[in-house]
C-alpha cells in the first residue's frame, strides 16, 4: 500500500468536518458478548475501599482537538498504562495508528473524520499492535496512514486479547487491587443535541469535570470512550453521590486538569461497554521487545475475580 508523500499534509481538519470530540459508534454486541468477561467474586465487594485513584498509572492527558477519535484515545490510554513499572519514563503511543488502522478495517478512508467501533479498535491493538507516538504523531497528522516503520514497530507492540467487565463493582475491584491495579476502557452514550449536551457534559461541566444527569427522554446521538482510573463512593456533588474518575481526551484545560467525574447513576443508565486489556509487548528498538503479558489468569487475582467464557456463535 502506498504511503502518503507527506503525512503532515493530512493534519488539517476542514471546517465542515469539525465535531465535538466524541466518535464511539454503537457497540457491536455480538463481538462484545463473544469475549470472556470478568466479575468480582462473591464477597469480594465487602473488602473494597470506599475510594481509590490510580491516575498515577497514566500518561498526561491529551486532546482529540475536536475530532471523532475518542476510541483511539481511550484504547491508547489503557495501553500506555500498561507501561507503568516496566518503562521509565512512560512513553506516548500513537492514536493516529489506532484510528487510521481501525477506519481501514471498517472500509473507511483513513483521512475521514469518522467515528469507529470500539471492538474493531481493540482488534487492531491485538492483531496489528500499536506504535510509539513519534512514529505516527497525532499532533502533527491525525489523518495520516502509518509509515512502513510504524507498521513494523507495531508488530512488536501487540496487545493481548481484551476481556469485558461485567459491573461497577468489578471496576472498583480492579482499580482497588493493592498489588496490581487496572484502569478499564469505558464507552458510554452521548444523548441529546449539541445544545442539550451543554447541560450535562459540556458547558459548566467543562469547568469542574462533573457530569450531570441528562433528560431521560433524550436519545443517543453519539458515543464517547474514556479510561476509568478511580472511584469515590462518598463523593457528593449536588444531589448525586458516588462517582467514577475518568481520564478524558479533551485537553488539560477541560474538567479537572483533563479528568472528569461520572455519577454512578449516569454509569448505570448510559454505559455501553467496558473492557480490560491484560497486557502488551513494547518495542524497545535494536530488536528488543519487552513484554507486559500476564499469566493465563489475565493478570487478575483468582481469589478476587471470576473469569467467565464468552458466548460462542
UniProtKB/TrEMBL annotation:
Picking any one GO molecular function of the record gives: cysteine-type peptidase activity
Q: Please give the biological process terms from Gene Ontology that the record holds.
A: proteolysis
Q: Which residues form a coiled coil?
A: none
Q: Report domain Peptidase C1A papain C-terminal positions.
A: 58-262
Which superkingdom is the protein from? Answer: Eukaryota
> Which InterPro entries does this chain map to?
Papain-like_cys_pep_sf, Peptidase_C1A_C
Name the chain's protein. Peptidase C1A papain C-terminal domain-containing protein
Query: What organism is this sequence from?
Result: Aspergillus wentii DTO 134E9
